[in-house]
């Protein structure tokens, strides 16, 4: 009887608390990095001033031991298990000149305000792709623009934006230009302007009417060009703004025939309302999918308990 009750308790607790204790938040420590769970490699994503005090990996290792709370990975830490993620530390170690590995790492590091030739690895969606730069692969978020989603959640004009971007990138001759105050966003993605030949890809996407909002991390070099391209797309009714323009013209003509002033909706507000409705639907579906397994498991446990006590009689 005790074993049965214990098993029942495990089933119920698993249903109610599904994997919370194994969640990996991925939070950064005071140095701007964290240990990768799979192999305890330390990834320095966004170096803080504390991290930049280190002159080399050996000095950084001492700081990691001091500031990181993952005691298990700290015990396994070696210099080979520190990945600078393309960043350059505050100085160069005395052995850098004689170490081919360190020299390669220094030459492949990225800096703000620079242009780098890039090779397309994978086109993900309208504003994200993976590129090979200086021998390293970077998931790259296109600076400043936000296109409709087309991966996990498919939004209106998401597929069109993805096809447009991927078709342009497939032409090759790609250059990434870093800008702003940081190389990476909070999701560890490289932030860059993307050039295909002599064309600024973000500007081309905006002109096609496939930019719904701005993904703004600060003041950027080509902001005005993108805003102007987006305004032109709205005026021309390009892409996602074509349907909105048709609706406005139809409403305008109907209202004029009735002798009333038209109440013209904002394309921006329409897009935001669509996005809010989709997010609400997704949340309701997620909540429903989360609650149903709990209910079924509880019903199953009750049935098992009923037959168990029935067989005891």
UniProtKB/TrEMBL annotation:
User: How far does the signal peptide extend, from start to end residue?
Assistant: 1-23
SMART domains this protein is in?
SNc
What sections of the sequence does the record tag as coiled-coil? none
An example Pfam family from this entry, by short name, is SNase
Q: Where are the transmembrane segments?
A: 293-310
Sequence segments annotated as region (Disordered): 90-110, 240-287
Q: Kindly state which keywords UniProt assigns to this record, in alphabetical order.
A: Endonuclease, Hydrolase, Membrane, Nuclease, Signal, Transmembrane, Transmembrane helix
Query: TNase-like domain: from which residue to which, for each copy?
Result: 114-243
What protein name does the entry list? Answer: Nuclease
């Amino acid at each position: 009887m005790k074993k049965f009750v214990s098993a029942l308790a495990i089933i119920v607790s698993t249903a109610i608390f599904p994997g919370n204790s194994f969640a990996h938040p991925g939070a950064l420590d005071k140095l701007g990095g964290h240990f990768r769970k799979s192999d305890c490699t330390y990834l320095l994503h966004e170096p803080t001033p504390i991290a930049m005090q280190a002159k080399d990996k050996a000095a950084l290792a001492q700081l990691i031991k001091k500031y990181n709370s993952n005691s298990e990975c700290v015990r396994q830490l070696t210099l080979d298990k520190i990945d600078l993620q393309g960043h350059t530390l505050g100085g160069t170690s005395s052995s850098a000149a004689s170490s081919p590995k360190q020299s390669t790492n220094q030459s492949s590091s990225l800096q703000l305000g620079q242009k780098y030739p890039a090779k397309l690895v994978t086109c993900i969606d309208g504003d994200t792709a993976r590129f090979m730069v200086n021998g390293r692969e970077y998931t790259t978020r296109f600076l400043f623009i936000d296109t409709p989603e087309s991966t996990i959640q498919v939004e209106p004009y998401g597929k069109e934006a993805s096809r447009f971007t991927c078709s342009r990138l497939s032409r090759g001759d790609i250059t990434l230009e870093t800008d702003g105050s940081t190389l990476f966003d909070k999701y560890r993605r490289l932030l860059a302007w993307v050039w295909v030949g002599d064309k600024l890809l973000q500007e081309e996407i905006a002109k096609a009417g496939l930019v719904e909002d701005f993904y703004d991390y600060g003041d950027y070099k080509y902001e005005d060009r993108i805003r102007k391209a987006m305004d032109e797309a709205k005026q021309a009714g390009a892409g996602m703004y074509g349907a909105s323009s048709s609706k406005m013209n139809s409403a305008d003509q109907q209202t004029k025939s009735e002798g009333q002033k038209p109440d013209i909706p904002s394309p921006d507000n329409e897009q935001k309302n669509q996005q809010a409705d989709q997010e609400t639907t997704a949340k309701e579906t997620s909540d429903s999918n989360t609650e149903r397994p709990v209910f079924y498991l509880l019903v199953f446990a009750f049935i098992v308990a009923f037959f168990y006590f029935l067989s005891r009689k």
